Amino acid sequence: MNQVFPPGIIREFSDSNPIQAKLVYYRDPFWMPFIVPGKEGFHHDILNRISNVSKFINMEASHCFVGRHVLIKDRRIHPDGHPIKRGIIKRLPSSNNGTYCIYTLDFGIKIPVELRCIHKIGEDLISIPPTLFNARLMGIKPISKFTFLRGNVTNAYFVMKELDSAANIFVYIRRCYTLNDGTIYVQVISTKNGFRVDWAAEMIICRTSLKYYENYGCFRSDQNYCYTFHFLNQYFDKTINKCYRIHDCPFCGNQHRLIYCGSYQKADQNLINLENRI
Q1: Which of 38, 202, 236, 253 is deepest in the core (most CB within 10 A)?
Q2: Positions in the chain short of pLDDT 70
Q3: 168 CB-near residues (< 8 Å, 6+ apart)
């Protein structure tokens, strides 16, 4: 019988040997989708198959449930060249005009999607496993102790951008630990100016992250607040202004939409000020 682990339990990855992998996107050190090693060509092929889908069957709200596979039309303000994506419903809206949280299987990102942009998916596409896995960098934690910031050019995102440019997308990783939701904690090594660079160490040297020893070096925030998603995406599509979900606010302890919270707005500004002083 297979052992079932609770979602928050960290366990060792089955193969921690260093391996070359392709990083396709990064939002911060805790959101780095990699193509499954050895599946680079397959990833390209599945994107072509999805782009050739010509018939779309709308979904009714009564048929949408958490864990269901779907096709979506990505209508975000900043397109990535792939308007059709396959995904899994991760969260339902809390109001009739709210959005569904969809995890994209071939892009490794979660995006808010309106019901009119959610469509049925064929069994041939459902049977294909995800071509990406989401990775988190080990050994560090955010300076804010909650999330990484993207307000100016002295932050973790831009350090990663510089390292990624030097590495030409391909880096060496060690997959060390994993969570039951498929998230994998990794060490990342690349080459910069002829020298090997450990990404976690570089984050600490550049003072965009703090060293983290506890829990095998695998940092997790106390709760997976919806705030994390909105805050990290606000520079792209202002999703926090569109979210009708009632949140357990980490700033004032009340339940409300985050955009209405004065304590949230004050904490938001305090984090930016903190980053500017470092």
Answers
A1: 202
A2: 1-8, 77-79, 144-154, 166-169, 181, 221-253, 255-260, 264-265, 267-278
A3: none
Got the DSSP string for 158-187?
Answer: HHHHHHHHHHTTEEEEEEEEE-TTS-EEEE
Residue 1 lies in a domain: no
pLDDT at 208: 82
Annotate 225-238 with b (16+ C-beta within 10 A) or e (fewer).
Answer: bbbbbbbbbeeebe
Domain boundary among 85, 101, 126: 126
Domain containing 105 — which CATH number?
A: 2.30.30.140
Q: What is the pLDDT of residue 2?
A: 36
The CATH number assigned to the domain holding 143 equals: 2.40.50.90
- Cβ pair 147, 240 in contact under 8 A: no
Sheet containing 100-104: which strands, arranged edge to edge? 110-113, 100-104, 84-91, 69-73, 118-119
Residue 272's pLDDT is what? 57
C-alpha 26/C-alpha 16 separation (Å) is 22
CB 235 within 8 A of CB 150: yes
Residue 2 in domain:
no
Q: What does DSSP assign to residue 58?
A: B
Work out how many domains the chain is built from and give that number.
3
CA atoms of 103 and 47, how far apart (whole Å): 15
Residue 216: exposure state from Cβ atoms within 10 A (0-12, 13-18, ≥19)? middle
Q: Is residue 99 part of a domain?
A: yes
101 and 27 within one domain: no
Q: Looking at residue 235, what is its pLDDT?
A: 39
In a domain, 162, yes or no: yes
